[in-house]
Amino acid sequence: MRLLTPAMLISLLNLLDLLINIVAVRIIGMSIIELSLLNFAWTIVFVFFVKIANRLGDQGIARLQIILGLIGVLGSEISLMIVVENREYWLIYASYMVHAIAYSFTRIGVNAYVLENFQSSEWSSIFKKISRNTLLFDAVLLISISRITIGLFLHGFEFFIGITLLIYFLGVLKLKEPVFKIERILNRIERNISTVITSVHGYLNLTSFENFNGSFIPYYRMLQPAAISIRLIVIGLLGFKIGNEFLFTPLPYHFIKTLRFDLNQVFQIYGIGKIVAFILYTLFQGAITRKIVFLASIPLRLLTVYVILVSGLDESAIAVSLGFLYLANSIIDSNLYLQYVESTGGYGTGTYSLLSEASSLIGVLTSGFVYSVYGLTALLTLVALLSTPKIVLALRKKDYELY
Question: From which residue to which does any coiled coil extend (predicted)?
Answer without folding.
Answer: none
